[in-house]
Design a protein that fits this description.
alpha+beta, Alpha-Beta Plaits, about 220 residues, four-stranded antiparallel sheet
Length: about 220
């Protein structure tokens, strides 16, 4: 009996230790990702400073060259060829710096997308534990929602409209905002009620709800 009890305790401690280790590992990955993002932002800032310094030097050289031309109009300007070469070199260098900046920006976006993906997974798990969910829907042409204001959304005790995406715009869910086809709506709420409300955005057939729809 004692051996059985010790075995169970050992198993519980092993499971608890594994969960603790996974939690530590997850936190470490988050911290490491944030450190990488900070470093990349610092790198991008340094690149921008180099570009500003380079353009400032070129601007100063152009000003000096123009000043000399005004002071010595009858003398041949031997510095034009040198200035042209400097401008060509500066242009190539600025192009290289811009390419580096684009690469750094892409790395930052990738790290941020990884962080957002983890947050969304955590949110989805939290909602699933509560029989809830989040839906991203595209309003179809001819759906009941087309031409209707947000206040006409079928009443529900738990479903909430988080946002409306229209082209490049993120629209606040104001009561007087009118739905259009191809709008993207983000809903959050109890899964059973989400299934009912979804039809209002994707089907031409009116849905049945116990409460009246206010127009």
């Amino acid at each position: 009996m004692n051996f059985e009890l010790l075995g169970r305790i050992n198993k519980e401690l092993s499971i608890t230790g594994s969960v603790f280790y996974e939690a530590i590992l997850a936190v470490s990955e988050r911290v490491n990702r944030k450190v990488q993002i900070i470093r990349l932002h610092w790198h991008a800032s340094m690149i921008l400073q180099q570009m500003e310094h380079l353009t400032g030097e070129i601007g100063q050289q152009i000003v000096d060259q123009v000043s000399r031309r005004f002071l010595s109009r009858n003398q041949p300007d031997s510095g034009l060829s040198t200035l042209d070469a400097t401008l060509s070199h500066a242009t190539a260098r600025v192009h290289e710096l811009k390419q580096s900046l684009v690469q750094v920006d892409a790395q930052i976006r990738e790290l941020k997308l990884e962080a957002i993906h983890e947050d969304l997974l955590s949110l989805q798990q939290d909602l699933s534990l509560r029989a809830a969910g989040i839906e991203r829907l595209t309003i179809t042409r001819g759906a009941a929602a087309v031409g209707q204001p947000i206040r006409a959304l079928p009443r529900s005790s738990s479903v909430h409209l988080a946002t409306v995406l229209r082209g490049p715009f993120l629209l606040a869910p104001a009561d007087d905002l009118v739905f259009r086809h191809d709008d993207i709506v983000v809903l959050i709420g109890a899964q059973s009620e989400l299934d009912q409300v979804t039809a209002w955005f994707t089907s031409q057939s009116p849905i049945k709800t116990p409460a009246a729809i206010s127009i």
